[in-house]
Amino acid sequence: MDERVTNIVIGGEAGQGLVTVGQLLSRSLVRGGYFIVVTQTYESRIRGGHNTFAIRVSSREVLAPQEGIDLLVALSAETVELHRGEMTSRGLIVVGEDMDVGDGPSIMRVPLKGFAPERFSNIAALGVVGALVGVDGGLLERTVVESFGKRGEKAAEENLRALRAGFEWCEAQGARFARLAAVSGAPRRLAMSGNEAIALGAMSAGLKFYSFYPMSPSTPIALVLSGEAGRMGLVVEQAEDEIAAINMAIGASFAGAPSMVATSGGGFALMVEGVSLAGMTETPLVVVVAQRPGPATGLPTRTEQADLEFVLHAGHGEFPRAIFAPGTVEECFHLTRRAFELAERYQGPMFVLTDQFLADSYRAVEPFDVGALASVRPGAGAVEGPYLRYAITESGVSPRLLPGMSEHLVVVDSDEHHETGHITEDLSVRGRMVEKRLRKGEGMRGEVVPPEAKGPEKPELLLVSWGSSKGAVEEAASRMRAEGRKVATLHFSQVWPLVGEQFMARLEEAGEAVCVEGNAVGQLARLIRRETGFVFHRRLSRYDGLPFTPEEILRQLKRS
Q1: Which has the closest alpha carbon to 551: 461, 465, 460, 473?
Q2: Which residue from 1, 36, 40, 21 is spatially nearest to 130, judged by alpha carbons?
Q3: Total of domains in the chain
């Protein structure tokens, strides 16, 4: 058995079912006790184009994608042509026996079309892969039945036959490939993506209203929520556009329903005026922005970290906000919850900033103990009259009553207003209201999630990251430490507000501080410089639509 990390890549055209194979294999591996990191690449088309579903798997924890391919499952000849040069020294390419891809010791030809009707070729390939890496056949079968049984007994049986044919054929060949080390007493973990974790975190926090307009890579959040809407008492509304989506959510929140919207950069551009409306009316709202490369439509199915400055400055006028940038699936869950808590406590818009890589990436996660987690409770308790919706307080937070839920009249206005909520053009009131709203930002600063530091103090090299680059940075640092270098990491899972006291000592004590970001201009690096005066010694950037890998980080460090 092999304890090394194995990188399995399934490649083919959209419509060939490679995502189905990838998801079923991922679930089976996690249930078998293995750790995974999934990277999906796909083109913006319904059918055709070259797509991949990569699963990096090991019996020990893995943190990031890998570039070299150990096992390539090619559902199209183009897959072999594109990825043959990425195979590792032990690499094996699995192809249908009728594919014209040449021959060689690393090619394994499989009679996929002989196992079952052609539409089940992908499931037959799943059986072959499962046998090659040593996944328990019964576990694969249970996963397939669970997935296809919802379509009826016949669908489950047809897919099972294809799976068994592929699995048994491969076992009979005695095919040699490094099998995964067996995991004894496999712990119970869940195969979960970043988008799924955001949806679950929102529901655990008390989400009651979700409005959206479909936009990759955020759309799966809506699919998860709509699937649970009846059981969880949610309203999930597909609006006619993003402007309607955010305004509907603000209205629902005003009425007392904890609300969220999710989109990507282009959709968020349409929501910006609504962000200001939530800031002025002091209405709780959670906004998820799943980043992808721009400007404009850019690369709609690829990944990037280029919208930090956009989200930070979105909305005209000045009002406080918090921006979270999860680096793991677990952080997607917990930081979404935190966004709901802050939105209710400080009465305004809060943001969760993710990206295509993390949104679509499946990981093995421990089940969340949701029974021990409290949900937000909108509105204040009893308030003595006269009720002032925007009462000027020391904290800047005013009592928030829900309309129709008390004897008091609740008045809000998108214009500047008196403490009562009625419109005003009294400029002295204006000044006091601006200061009141901004005082809420001081409370938020006191609740900032500190950056996570790992490795030795006063290192020769400090790698700083935010969001989804966390795993790649930590693995690159670990490899350098294994070579005897004194390397540490500092990861920001909240990128606004920035509290210098939490991290400046780490930056200043490092021999060299390098900021790693998935954008071209170093948006976090220059935000830290603006807020603290600290200038990074170097920056590592990636903006080709692909996520960081440890290999890419190590290459850039050697070059610069």
Answers
A1: 473
A2: 21
A3: 3
Chain segment 21-30, per-residue pLDDT in tens? 999 999 999 9
Three-state SS for 503? coil
CA geometry: angle at 126 spanning 125 and 129, to 5°? 85
Describe the strand order of the beta sheet including 35-41 as a list of residue ranges: 107-110, 87-96, 69-74, 6-14, 48-58, 35-41, 362-365, 190-193
pLDDT tens digits along 298-316: 999 999 999 999 999 999 9
The Cα 320–Cα 208 span in angstroms is 24
Are the beta carbons of 433 and 425 closer than 8 angstroms?
no
Question: How far apart are the C-alpha atoms of 136 and 28, rounded to whole Å?
Answer: 9
Nearest to 349 by CA among 327, 319, 383: 319
Quick one: 216 and 339 in the same domain? yes
Domain that holds residue 507: 452-559
First vs last C-alpha separation in the chain: 39
Q: Which of 135, 167, 188 is the last residue of a domain?
A: 188
* Residues 470 and 503 both lie in one domain: yes
The reported pTM is 0.96
Which residue's entry shows tokens 């892969």?
Answer: 129
State the pairing for strand pair 87-96/107-110. Answer: parallel
